[in-house]
Amino acid sequence: MAKETQWFGYGSRIIITTQDQRLLSAHGISHIYKLNLPATDEALQILCLYAFGQNSPDLMSIRFRSKVPPHDGFKKLAMEFTQLAGELPLGLRVMGSYLRGMSLGEWEDALPRLRTGLDGEIGEIERTLRFSYDALSYRDKALFLHIACLFHGFRADHVKQWLANSGLDVNHGLEVLTRKSLKTSNVGFLGMHSLLQQLGVDIVRKESIREPGKRQFLVDVDDISDVITDNAVRPCIMLNISKIEDALVVEESVFDGMTNLQLLRWDYCPLRVWPSTFSTKFLVELIMRGSKFEKLWEGIQELPNLSNATNLESFLLSFCTSLLEIPSSVGNGTSLKTLDLSCTSLVNLPSSICNATSLEKLILSGCSRLKTSRDHHKHPRAQSE
Q1: Residue 175 main-chain phi, psi, to 5 deg
Q2: What is the rounded end-to-end Cα distance, in angstroms, of the chain?
Q3: CATH, domain range 126-200
Q4: What is the pTM of this model?
Q5: Disease resistance protein Roq1-like winged-helix domain: which residues (predicted)?
Q6: Cβ proximity of 323 and 294 under 8 Å
Q7: Pick the CATH number of 250-384 from 3.40.1190.20, 3.40.630.30, 3.80.10.10, 3.30.70.100
C-alpha cells in the first residue's frame, strides 16, 4: 500500500502494525516498537468500558439482586475476567461485550465456561488468534501445541534437548513462533500468552472430545484421571497429582503403552514401587519429585536396567521421603549428567554410581541418614550439592 516513501509529503509519519517482525526487517524498517500489554488497572478499565459503558462498575447503573454489595461483587469478577483475558485488548473487548447487560449472578455463571474454552459466544477471540496459528507450517504448528500443552514455563534449552529427535526443527521453529508473536522468552524460559495457551489446549481437546485418550496431549486433570483409571491409550501427559482432589488409584499397567516416552514429569506420584513394564529406551528426563516411592524396582526379572536408557540425562527424585535406596544399575546411565537424590530417608548409594562417567551434578541435600562405606567413592567428575 505504501511502496515508496516518496509518495508521502515531507514530515509524514507512517505507522505499520504487524504480528510478524520479519515483515518489518524485510522492508528496511529499523524503528521498531514492541507494544506491551496494558497495565492491570488500565486493562480493567478497558473491560469495564465494554461491559458497563464506563471505566468501572457503578451502583446507579446496575440492577441487581444479590447479597454481595454490587460494586464489590462486579469489581471482583471484573478483575477475574481481566486476568482471564490475559490483559489482551482483544480479549478484554470481546469478553466485556459478551458480559454487557448481565446480572451479577449471570457473570458468576459465565466465569467457569469462559475458563475452559474460547469458543461459543467469545469465538471471535479464537478466530482471531487461530488466524496466525493456521498460517504456520505443520512442524511449527506441532511445536506451538507442544509449548501450549506441555512446555509453557520450561527452559528453552531443555525443550530443545527433549525434542531433538522429533523432526520438528526446534531451533528454527522457536524463531518463527517468536517472530510471529506466538511465543515469548524470558531469561531462557519459554512463555506464551494465556489466551494463546488456551487456544493450543482447545485445538488438542477438539481432536477427540469424547475420548480423551486419543488426543496427542492431556492437560486437563479430570481427563487425565479418567484415562489413567480406565487404562486407556496414553498420549503425552503433564500431570500434577496435587491438583486432583479425590484419591486417584493408579495401576502399574498405566505405563504399558508408553514405549516411546521421552519426558515423564509426575510430581507426587502415588506409586510405591516402580512399574516393571516401564520402558526407558527413549527417556531423556525423569522428574518424580515428592513421590511416594519406597523402591524404584526390585528383582532381576523386573529390573528396567538403566543401561538401556542411553539418552537419560536428568534423573530427579527430590523429596521422595520414603525412598531408602536406589538400584545399582543407576551407574549404567551412560548419558546421565544430573542426579538429584535429595531424599531424607535415603540410606545407601551404590558403588556403581562411579560408573556414570558423564555425571556432572550429584545433589544429596538433606540426606542426613546417608551412610558411607569403603566402596562408596566420590565420583571423579560429580559436584555434590
Answers
A1: -65, -40
A2: 61
A3: 1.10.10.10
A4: 0.67
A5: 139-208
A6: yes
A7: 3.80.10.10
Cα separation, 360 vs 124, whole angstroms: 50
DSSP codes of every residue in 57-125:
--GGG-----SS-HHHHHHHHHHHHHHHTTT-HHHHHHHHHHHTT--HHHHHHHHHHHHH-S-GGGHHH
What per-residue confidence (pLDDT) applies to 173?
A: 93
Residue 218, φ and ψ in degrees, nearest 5: -125, 125
Which pLDDT score is estimated for 282? Answer: 67
Q: How many residues does the chain have?
A: 385
Give tens-digit pLDDT for 287-335.
777 777 666 655 433 434 566 666 778 887 777 777 777 777 777 666 7
Spatial CA neighbour of 267 closest among 285, 240, 245, 292: 240
Domain locations in the chain as residue ranges: 40-116, 126-200, 250-384
